[in-house]
Design brief:
This protein has 127 residues and is of the alpha+beta class.
Length: 127
């Protein structure tokens, strides 16, 4: 798990899609805060995470807390989009080789969810 968490932080610093692709298990599942059904498979998980990087990857994004329990990690983040303060968590489960097998995002407050939904929708349409 430490391998995976270290690789995730390296990806977050670099934004390099090749690092992300190596990190995601082929059968990974992504749980969006605004899409009802889980999104399964490396390709779609990559698409969501790359879009999130475009939307949330600004100078105000920061991880402020990290909780590790076995193969599970919870990373709390803060951000600001268009004057709306965002607070959220990334819940990540890694396999024994350090690859992401499950990634869940939760966001608050409601204004933040609506802003993320709006901007993620626009970004995903571009991809």
């Amino acid at each position: 798990m430490q391998l995976g968490l270290g690789a995730w932080h390296r990806y977050m610093q670099s934004g390099d899609p090749a690092l992300l692709e190596e990190l995601i298990h082929p059968d990974a599942v992504f749980h969006s805060p605004v899409v009802h059904t889980p999104q399964a498979g490396r390709e779609i998980v990559m698409k969501y995470l790359l879009a999130a990087g475009e939307v949330l990857g600004n100078e105000s994004f920061a991880y402020v807390r990290e909780i590790v329990d076995g193969e599970n990690v919870v990373l709390e983040f803060v951000n600001e989009l268009d004057g709306i303060k965002i607070n959220g968590i990334d819940m990540i489960r890694f396999d024994l080789e350090g690859r992401i097998i499950d990634f869940k995002v939760m966001v608050r407050p409601l204004k933040a969810i609506n802003k993320v939904w709006e901007q993620m929708g626009a970004q995903l349409q571009k991809m």
